[in-house]
Amino acid sequence: METDPPPKSWSIHTRPEIIAKYKVLERVGSGAYADVYRGRRLSDDLTVALKEIHDYQSAFREIDALQILQGSPNVVVLHEYFWREDEDAVLVLEFLRTDLATVISDAAKERTLSVGEIKRWMIQILCGVDTCHRNMIVHRDLKPANLLISDDGVLKLADFGQARILMEPGFDASEENLQQYEHGASNLESLLQHPEALPQKNQELGPVGHAEYFEALEKLRMKSSTEDIPDGNTSCLATCTTSDIDDDILKTNFSVEAMEGEEGKELGCLTSCVGTRWFRAPELLYGSTNYGLEIDLWSLGCIFAELLTLQPLFPGTADIDQLSRIINVLGNLDDKIWPGCSTLPDYGIISFSKVENPRGLENCLPNCSPDEVSLVKKLVCYDPARRATAMELLRDKYFDEEPLPVPVSDLRVPLTRTGEDKGSPGGWNEYNGMDSDSDLDDFGSVNITRTGTGFSMQFP
Ligand code: ADP
Q1: Torsion of CA 292, 298, 303, 309, to 10 degrees
Q2: Residue to mutate (ligand 1; options 28, 30, 36; most atoms within 8 A of CB)
Q3: Which residue numbers are catalytic?
Q4: What's the gap in Å between 130 CA and the centre of ligand 1?
Q5: What EC class is this (predicted)?
Q6: 51 annotated among ligand-binding-site residues
Q7: How far is the CA of 15 from the centre of ligand 1 (A)?
Q8: 3-state secondary structure string, 184-230?
Q9: Ligand 1: residues within 6 Å at CB?
Q10: Fold entry, domain 22-94
Q11: Domain 98-167+270-414+447-458 fold
Q12: Which residue in 166, 184, 285, 451 has the fewest CB atoms around it within 10 Å?
């Protein structure tokens, strides 16, 4: 005899399996795909975050990545999750009261973030990213607001809703790779004064060295280039629709040539974007669907620059503006600077006029030491293959030199997220407000003219 399926529960507050174990308290935040509540575990009064994820794929990614990364000190802890067919997944996460965006905005108000503190925040971020990358997990949305911080100063990567696993975890680390790892790990130990900041679990896998991971990535690309990263075209054009266009003229220096026919139709689609714009790598902005761990390294460079200057490095107001800002600093790109860039899907479609005197990263980092500038330059560079890996940066002499990184326990942690029902505290909200993911929304509009091949959007 057929029995009726149990009634669907639409609210986290009424789901029996959850309320049997947790008291659901106030909502502490909501993101693109999720609502997050503070909760209390009934068995031991532990404060937790209950993250109700409304998007299947995002839930799947987050659970998958967090399970692989379980035990990593610089990744948010997933205690358990609830997920039944036809219901939103609810993840039970450790509750973390603040984040790096708040640290930066507080410091910007008071102009107080010491070099020792900056170094310790950087080391923790690098450890978290290194753990992800050793497991071939690309986070794809690294930004200060997704770097959560515990009351005792431990920084943890969070929001893995966009993460992708590029290959099976524990992929065969070669002998040399392991040797390289051991060398790295011993340096690392002297570097890190606090065990809580050390990668623990998954260490036995060995890190993926620079050459190895690109090699592995290349193999993966050969194997599955067509199915690579199928979701969300992230190029400037993917988020640009002709309906966004009107007669106003923009004061910028590029043009976009759009095609008719099938490609033209695709341009009309508004699609989701990977990574928040300000931290999005140029290969994504040029429409690459064949990218890898390196996109996180670009984001890391932008985060480090922001930690050093307390201001976002490339605060683009639209995706094309984002690219324009990057080009104004790093200069125009060609196959000499970035071999293969001319094969990027949108390379021939978006063109910028010649930037005679690129500003240069050093000029975006006033009052920074040459070592700091060099650190950012190792990450914020066009050619993804030239970006330094997290492990390489952990060995950078910058972290061994005076002023040394302060102990984690000496980090000043803002007291935020006290439980009011609002998005997130402090600077976080300010940033999100400027951080829309749909292109040309706040950008204004462009001139459109017909050309032989289709139409051209002109940004004078
Ligand atoms: P989305 O995947 O929708 O972007 P997020 O993971 O960014 O969702 O979470 C949305 C908000 O919830 C965050 O901005 C933050 O304020 C809060 N939040 C997320 N995870 C936690 C956590 N572990 N502890 C405390 N607050 C959290």
Answers
A1: 180
A2: 36
A3: 141
A4: 22
A5: transferase
A6: yes
A7: 20
A8: HHHHHHHHCCCHHHCCCCCHHHCCCCHHHHHHHHHHHHHHHCCCCCC
A9: 28-34, 36, 49, 51, 76, 93-96, 148, 158-159, 161, 417, 424
A10: Phosphorylase Kinase; domain 1 (3.30.200)
A11: Transferase(Phosphotransferase); domain 1 (1.10.510)
A12: 451
Q: What backbone torsions phi and psi does residue 40 show, to the nearest 5 degrees? A: -125, 130
Question: 430 CA distance to ligand 1 centroid (A)?
Answer: 16
Torsion of CA 168, 169, 171, 176, to 10 degrees: 160
pLDDT in tens, the chain (460 residues): 445 544 444 689 999 999 999 999 999 999 889 999 999 999 999 999 999 999 999 999 999 999 999 999 999 999 999 998 889 999 999 999 999 999 999 999 987 899 999 999 999 999 999 999 999 999 999 999 999 999 999 999 999 999 999 974 444 333 343 333 333 333 333 333 332 222 333 333 344 445 555 555 455 444 433 334 444 444 555 443 323 323 333 334 556 554 333 333 333 222 225 678 999 999 999 999 989 999 999 999 999 999 999 999 999 999 999 999 999 999 999 999 999 999 999 998 988 999 999 999 999 999 999 999 999 999 999 999 999 999 999 999 999 999 999 999 999 999 876 644 343 333 333 333 333 333 333 333 333 223 333 322 333 2
Sequence ranges of the chain with CATH classification 1.10.510.10: 98-167+270-414+447-458
Nearest-atom index, ligand 1, CA of 95:
24
The whole-model pTM stands at 0.75
